Amino acid sequence: MTKPKTFLSGLFGKRHADAPATTAETPSEIPADAPAGIAPPAKIPVGAPAPEIEDQPLKQGFFARLAGGLSKTTQRLSDGVAAIVTKRKLDDETLDDLEELLIGADLGVKAAARVRDTLARDRFNREVSDAEVRAALAEAVAEGLAGLERPLTIDRTRRPHVILTVGVNGAGKTTTIGKLAGKFRKEGLNVMLAAGDTFRAAAVEQLKIWGERTGSAVIAKEAGADAAGLAFEALERARKEGVDVLLIDTAGRLQNRRELMDELAKIVRVLKKLDPSAPHDTLLVLDATVGQNAISQAAAFREIAGVTGIVMTKLDGTARGGVLAALAEKHPLPIHFIGVGEGVDDLQPFDAAGFARALAGLS
What we know:
This protein is α/β, with parallel strands linked by helices. It has two domains: 5-51 and 150-352, P-loop containing nucleotide triphosphate hydrolases (Rossmann fold), CATH 3.40.50; 73-148, Four Helix Bundle (Hemerythrin (Met), subunit A), CATH 1.20.120. Helix content is 47%, strand content 10%. The protein contains 14 helices and eight strands. The longest helix has 17 residues, at 258-274.
């Protein structure tokens, strides 16, 4: 049921009451940083058939792209392991060196200890090859991550299923939302995008481009508009129009900026005024290139926003890909997706065994 204007004005303040009406239109011009191959934007009615989402032809499978993306991490580990084990017996000193190498590669203490224990049990005081160490590494990482490979399931009985995305600046939230919208549209779901990053006009424009690209309605306001008010109106409209999935973008915020984190908490409170169970999923988008900082980010966002799952992006741009294992030690949250590129199909459901083998450089 649509709330009267006086209620919205009192809830969100004068700035929200005076703001221009939300729109589901996309811009009349394509921003300079828009993804390649985007057609001129147009109005997207809710419920319209999903357009064909064109991407660059896939020359290799996702595992091959994942292995290629993790090559920096793999090379760092392989070089270090080879330097340690060459012509040496696997004594306590060698095991110490290997454990230190793995911890230094952001794999975390538990994963490193599991590798050490496996090697000590099977190969102690014998020569060991780098291939044997990498096999033990893959086994240990897969063991630590296996319980976290869970799909992001949309409850089709909800209208809408609300997904809130959170994370720091530059983590890839807006792009992740666009890729998820493309996946959901391919599954035949009606999708609405809410441009809740009202601090950056570029983020709003980028989300509108993804709306055009995926055939998803976009709810947006001018830069500086109240993000909580926009989220409220988006949910209200999505309910009225029978939308299947509402994806809400939020401004990137540093976990140590209390006033920004308080604003995020306000968005969550506002959504619950319309639907006490919303958001139904809160995805923390993490940038793999930040390494161990991802762990402190997860702690802060879990406290404020009630994070339910993780999307790890930019695994192709870092030598710190092992941080996913360390993150799982501290924050055993479901890992729904990992990303190794900019294309729609470069965001894929997480596969613990495949990730571990790619990380260890095993074909």
